[in-house]
Write a structure and sequence with these properties.
The chain is α+β, with helices and mostly antiparallel strands and 364 residues long. Helix content is 32%, strand content 27%. It contains 10 helices and 17 strands. The strands form 4 sheets. It has a 6-stranded antiparallel sheet, sandwiched between helices. Helix 1 packs across helix 10 and helix 7 crosses helix 8. 36% of the residues are buried.
């Protein structure tokens, strides 16, 4: 059987840059070990005749990426992250024009449609914070009346960009914190209920924002934390939880994202520090893993074959598990940051092992 080829599909950023090249380099090195020929391409790299790709191949000897004319790959690993420009429609066009290729996953939907979809599953619904699509300031005020804390987040945002945290204080005033779309931390400010709409006017929240019930996840030092869990298909095509890690946000940050200055902590260590009881820690981690399997299996029934998902999870003061977000194109650096090299390598290898499984199943 010939060596199968795996094409990692991504999108160019401004200036022809490629976002995840350090990850793709690690993928390429692991692909050599596992018996895959790997290259990186974008929908813009199709040759004018539509028959080949001007792909990027990692040269180990020279430690650099080189362009190479390549046939279309046997398997496509889609790493295209959403961009609000002309490039993202090129992804849809490529998939529509090349349905014969073997894709490892399918596109999912934005955060609001995802919440609506998951809410239809009775078993998953209990893990979801109350979430609505922003229509007016009244939506924020009404949810504050119910929960005392809300997050206002972009419907298609990533990396903690553009998120606001609004808390009702004991005197009835509202405390607003957040991050700009550039990830810059906003200086906290306090407003009355009547002033909130005016102060948030520059954010242009309608119709691209959600209002979500806030889960109280501040540690004793005031820093926000949550958990990133990665579930992936393995070399036999089965969903397996690869690992999870705690993420602790930078001081004064409303998010825990590593790109925003957060740090990574092993899950069990963070849970033990909060809850003490080993039995409680095991109960919570077991619930997180059950949620991961429920979610992966549900989304696969809804959208078709997938290969990996990251779940962003909050644990409240009682130890209840909450599902905050789903990421179908997850980074895995959180595991390197915790020092768990075995899980980090497994997180890199599993998509490659699953690609080999798909290829062998198709070609006997």
């Amino acid at each position: 059987m010939p060596t199968p080829t795996l094409g990692v599909m991504t999108l160019y950023l401004g200036g022809g840059r490629i976002e995840e090249l350090p990850y793709f380099r690690k993928l390429s090195q692991s692909a050599d070990r596992l018996g895959l020929d790997l290259f990186v391409f974008t929908p813009e790299d199709v040759t004018p005749d539509g028959k080949q790709l001007r792909a990027w191949v990692y040269n180990k000897e020279l430690n650099k990426w080189e362009r190479k004319l390549s046939d279309f790959p046997d398997i496509v690993y889609d790493r295209c992250r959403y961009q609000r420009n002309y490039r993202f429609p090129l992804l849809r066009k490529f998939r529509a024009e090349h349905p014969q290729l073997l894709y490892m996953s399918r596109p999912l939907v934005h955060k609001w449609s995802m919440h609506q979809n998951l809410s239809r599953n009775r078993r998953i619904r209990q893990y979801l914070p109350e979430t609505i699509q922003y229509q007016s300031t009244a939506d924020i005020l009404q949810m504050l009346d119910r929960h005392g804390l809300v997050y206002v987040k972009p419907i298609d945002g990533t990396g903690g960009r553009g998120i606001l945290r609004i808390e009702r204080l004991e005197n009835g005033q509202l405390r607003v914190r957040g991050r700009e779309k550039s990830r810059k931390i906003i200086a906290p400010f306090t407003v009355s209920r009547a002033q909130l709409g005016t102060r948030l006017g520059r954010w242009k929240l309608y119709p691209r924002y959600l209002v979500q019930q806030g889960i109280r996840i501040a540690l004793k030092d005031g820093r926000i934390h949550d958990f990133r869990l990665l579930i992936q298909k393995d070399g036999s095509g089965q969903w397996k939880v690869t690992g999870s890690a705690g993420r602790v946000g930078a001081r004064h940050s409303v998010t825990s994202n590593l790109h925003g200055g957060g740090s990574a902590v092993p899950t069990e260590r963070l849970l033990r520090a909060r809850f003490g009881s080993e039995a409680k820690v095991q109960s919570i981690t077991g619930d997180m893993e059950r949620l991961a399997h429920l979610t992966a299996e549900h989304l696969e029934r809804q959208f078709g074959s997938l290969c990996e998902l990251a779940l962003d999870i909050a644990i409240d003061e009682r130890g209840k598990v909450w599902l905050l977000e789903i990421n179908p194109k997850p980074a895995r650096e959180v595991f390197a940051r915790t020092g768990n090299r075995d899980i980090y390598q497994k997180a890199i290898d599993r998509p490659l092992e699953y690609a080999l499984y798909l290829y062998r199943r198709k070609n006997g």
